[in-house]
């Protein structure tokens, strides 16, 4: 708003507090938030310190309509854009979840397929070359070599480790070595299906070790799930047509060793930045160093040379491929399982491990034409069902 005041002889302003005692008025104001006074020349009769500030008349005020004109434009807020952003975020989350599920599905499919292939070739090798200590050593050596090549060619990132990492990894490697050799010894004596039926009882060992050695308590449903596991394994063992005590004890020792491996792994991987793939690679290398002197002492090069010549004479050059395949697929299926564990919860991993055993048992029975009686199949089904119930009770 702009106004103009014509100067009149009548007094207009007067106040001792409004003006300083030394009355000094600038002839021109550069800026003022007050209405602009067009005539800035005042005589002494216009101001008085003895009179209050007042306006004598409003007749001389003039207003300009153009100066008072204010333009206000109203418009409807466009809310479509925020809604579009929300929809885009939801669609992005949906796509991410779908991609994650597909990724886990691929991991599981690869895990099960690689494990089935390993067990088939491993059993073929052990049937022609019954030296489980060397077979186990070759599996670890092949995996270690594959990872060293991957690190050297930068296909995989080199893990950043220190002395403390290797110290915490050592007990894990000891347990892993015992479990690996024991399972291989078991499969060299009995059918693959029987070994995996007994190995499905691993949750029972996990609960018993955690309860009596670590003092960890579990809810009643967990203990209840052990009954079908133990009962099913016992029924399958009693009714096994080709039962072998060494094979049975090898599977049982493997269960116990892998329980300790899992316990040590939980302690060793806390606050560890090494990925699952590299963690298993380091585990394989340390296990290889532990296993090699024992394999040399138990079996030795002389027995290996004789057995190798016998296998080549019976099978031919395909035997070399069998050995290479079982070694490669052993490392790959374990590597994928550790990569899966990085992406899923332990419960999902446990359920996946249970389903893996089912695929191995069924495929080995079909491929090797393993004779199975109905009562034996019932025991296997009960044990696997108990393992599944255990996984649900641990939720």
Can you put this structure into words, describing what you see?
With 395 residues, the chain is mainly α. The chain has two domains: 1-72, no CATH class; 111-393, no CATH class. Helix content is 68%, strand content 1%. The chain contains 13 helices and two strands, in the order ββααααααααααααα. The chain has helices at residues 65-68, 80-128, 132-152, 163-189, 192-199, 202-212, 220-238, 245-268, 276-298, 301-315, 318-343, 346-368, 374-393; strands spanning 3-4, 62-63. A two-stranded antiparallel sheet has the order 1-2. α3 (132-152) crosses α4 (163-189), α3 (132-152) packs antiparallel against α9 and α5 runs antiparallel to α12. The longest helix is centred in the N-terminal third of the chain and has 49 residues, at 80-128. The chain is globular. The protein starts with a strand and ends with a helix. The relative contact order is 0.14.
Task: Assign an overall shape.
Answer: globular
Low-confidence region ranges: 1-27, 29-49
What class do helices, strands and sheet pairing give?
mainly alpha
Helix fraction, binned, reads 55-70%
Tell me the domain tally. 2
Topology overview:
Blueprint: E1 3-4, E2 62-63, H1 65-68, H2 80-128, H3 132-152, H4 163-189, H5 192-199, H6 202-212, H7 220-238, H8 245-268, H9 276-298, H10 301-315, H11 318-343, H12 346-368, H13 374-393
Antiparallel strand pairs: 1-2
Provide keyphrases for this structure.
395 residues, 2 domains, 13 helices, disordered N terminus, mainly alpha, 2 strands, single chain
């Amino acid at each position: 708003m702009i106004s103009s005041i014509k100067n009149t002889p009548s007094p207009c302003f007067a106040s001792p507090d409004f003006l300083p005692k030394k009355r000094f008025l600038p002839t021109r104001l550069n800026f003022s938030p007050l209405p602009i006074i067009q005539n800035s020349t005042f005589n002494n009769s216009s101001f008085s310190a003895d009179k209050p500030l007042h306006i004598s008349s409003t007749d001389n005020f003039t207003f300009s309509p153009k100066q008072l004109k204010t333009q206000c434009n109203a418009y409807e807020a466009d809310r479509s854009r925020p809604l579009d952003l929300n929809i885009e975020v939801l669609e992005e989350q949906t796509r991410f979840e779908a991609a994650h599920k597909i990724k886990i599905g691929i991991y599981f499919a690869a895990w099960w397929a690689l494990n089935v292939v390993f067990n088939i070739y491993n059993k073929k090798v052990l049937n022609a070359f019954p030296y489980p200590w060397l077979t186990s050593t070759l599996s670890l050596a092949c995996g270690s070599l594959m990872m060293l090549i991957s690190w050297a060619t930068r296909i995989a990132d080199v893990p950043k480790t220190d002395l403390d990492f290797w110290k915490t990894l050592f007990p894990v490697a000891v347990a892993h070595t015992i479990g690996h050799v024991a399972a291989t010894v078991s499969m060299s004596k009995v059918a693959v299906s029987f070994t995996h039926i007994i190995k499905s009882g691993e949750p029972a060992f996990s609960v018993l070790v955690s309860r009596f050695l670590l003092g960890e308590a579990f809810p009643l449903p967990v203990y209840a799930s052990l009954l079908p596991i133990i009962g099913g394994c016992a029924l399958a063992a009693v009714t096994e047509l080709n039962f072998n005590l060494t094979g049975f004890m090898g599977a049982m020792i493997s269960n116990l060793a892998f329980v300790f491996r899992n316990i040590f792994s939980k302690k060793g991987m806390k606050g560890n930045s090494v990925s699952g793939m590299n963690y298993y690679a380091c585990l394989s290398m340390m296990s290889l160093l532990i296993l090699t002197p024992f394999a040399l002492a138990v079996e030795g090069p002389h027995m290996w040379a004789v057995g190798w010549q016998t296998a080549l004479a019976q099978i031919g050059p395909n035997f070399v491929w069998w050995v290479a395949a079982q070694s490669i697929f052993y490392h790959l299926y374990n590597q994928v399982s550790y990569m899966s564990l990085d992406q899923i919860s332990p419960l999902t991993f446990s359920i996946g491990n249970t389903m893996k055993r089912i695929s191995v048992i069924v495929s080995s029975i079909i491929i090797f034409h393993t004779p199975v009686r109905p009562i034996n199949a019932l025991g296997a089904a009960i044990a696997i069902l108990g393992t599944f119930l255990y996984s649900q009770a641990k939720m």
